[in-house]
Amino acid sequence: MDCADLFKNKRITLLGLGLLGRGVGDAEFLAQCGAQVTVTDKKTEAELAASVEKLKQYSNVTFHLGGHDSRDFTDTDLVIKAAGVRLDSTEIAAARAAGVPVMMSTALFAKYAMEAGAKIVGITGTRGKTTVAHMIHDSLISAFAKASADRRAFLGGNVRGISTLAMLPDVKAGDVVVLELDSWQLQGFGDLKISPNVAVFTNLMPDHMNYYDTDMEKYFVDKANIFKYQKTGDMLVVGDRVADRVRAAHPPVAPAASQPIPEEWALEIPGEHNRENAALAAATLTALGLSQEDVREGLESFEGVDGRLQFVRELHGVKIYNDNNATTPEATIAALRALGKDITLIVGGSEKGLALEELISEIKKAVSHITLLVHQNYQGSERLKKDLDAEGISYTEARDLQGAVDDAVKSARSGTILFSPAFASFGMFKNEYERNDQFLEIVRKMGGVA
């Protein structure tokens, strides 16, 4: 696909640059396509220095940082907003009032890729979407290589450092693009009235309630865009825990429930929740035409994803797991159940407003020592602390991640150390990726042979 046909000489405003690489990739791609790009963000140039530096080479990229100029939204051909920008922002309202289309890059990619004949597989859900997306993608790559097929599998969406939009020139008819989609990215699909050819909905649990004003229905409405605009011939795969809610929404395609994978299938990654993830991936891969042999081979060889119950190393007989991306109590509960007992748990972070009762109950069953991350902005930790005190559960406080890991290693004489925060990262860290990288660096530098 020739991107110049789509974007050359278009005036495009990118609302939200960020530091994760996706915004930079989008801006680079559009600039290379010949668009006149304006990048605007409330953060200052100093705060975005790493991203800005990569774009300074392009004469057709203009920056408005540290705030927004209303003309960037009213005197332009297109606004592409970042996933984290609220739809009810004044900038979006100004663009729409001026008749300027507002889109999101992943949805825009999906629209053009489907028009080119590629198949889009979208995965959403509160938990499991990253693991399921990688399971599907990795299995497709193996199967296509084994068959010497003239088709490729791509991975995009909510993936660190990857501009999905920039994959457009490489995608052709017959290719399969696997997209991990969060609720905000699916707002963009709703705006364009499109849904993936194959939609996978893993589950639905309370999350991002601070954004959705504690309204689960608002959260579901955004998630439901993954199937709302499907057409005859498309497919919808749903997990057991969300199946009834999806059916009640009267999707245009009848949902297919996943079936448990055979007991003899031996996964590399632990936990019943990962067997549930594998069941969803298996149903999807079968729908995409893979044989049972290829499905099993792909899933049994899958080694997991960074930050999701990731085994890092063994130190003095204690296994250390990185579950950084567990940003809800439910995710941490799943990790505790997967690893069993005698767990030293590193937990804590910023507030999401989610219930903690079940987490406390699971801590009583599985955890031998708690290291609690505390910070002036970590109201989630403060609320957890009150609940632990009320139950008479002891814990040690740590004011940074190095201190938390040191305490956990000192306390754990056997069993497992599990870093599973149960809360968001903001306050002590710029984002969950920085938290993930810090944890891995600290653990890998510790004494002993990895």
UniProtKB/TrEMBL annotation:
GO terms for molecular function: ATP binding; UDP-N-acetylmuramoylalanine-D-glutamate ligase activity. Residues 307-418 form the Mur ligase C-terminal domain. Keywords: ATP-binding, Cell cycle, Cell division, Cell shape, Cell wall biogenesis/degradation, Cytoplasm, Ligase, Nucleotide-binding, Peptidoglycan synthesis. It is found in: Cytoplasm. One of its GO terms (biological process) is regulation of cell shape. GO terms for cellular component: cytoplasm. It comes from the Bacteria. Its EC number is 6.3.2.9. ATP binds at G125, T126, R127, G128, K129, T130, T131. It is an enzyme of class 6 (ligase). Pfam families: Mur_ligase_C, Mur_ligase_M, MurD-like_N. Residues 123-239 form the Mur ligase central domain. Pathway: Cell wall biogenesis; peptidoglycan biosynthesis. Belongs to the MurCDEF family. Cell wall formation. Catalyzes the addition of glutamate to the nucleotide precursor UDP-N-acetylmuramoyl-L-alanine (UMA). PANTHER family: UDP-N-ACETYLMURAMOYLALANINE--D-GLUTAMATE LIGASE. This is UDP-N-acetylmuramoylalanine--D-glutamate ligase.
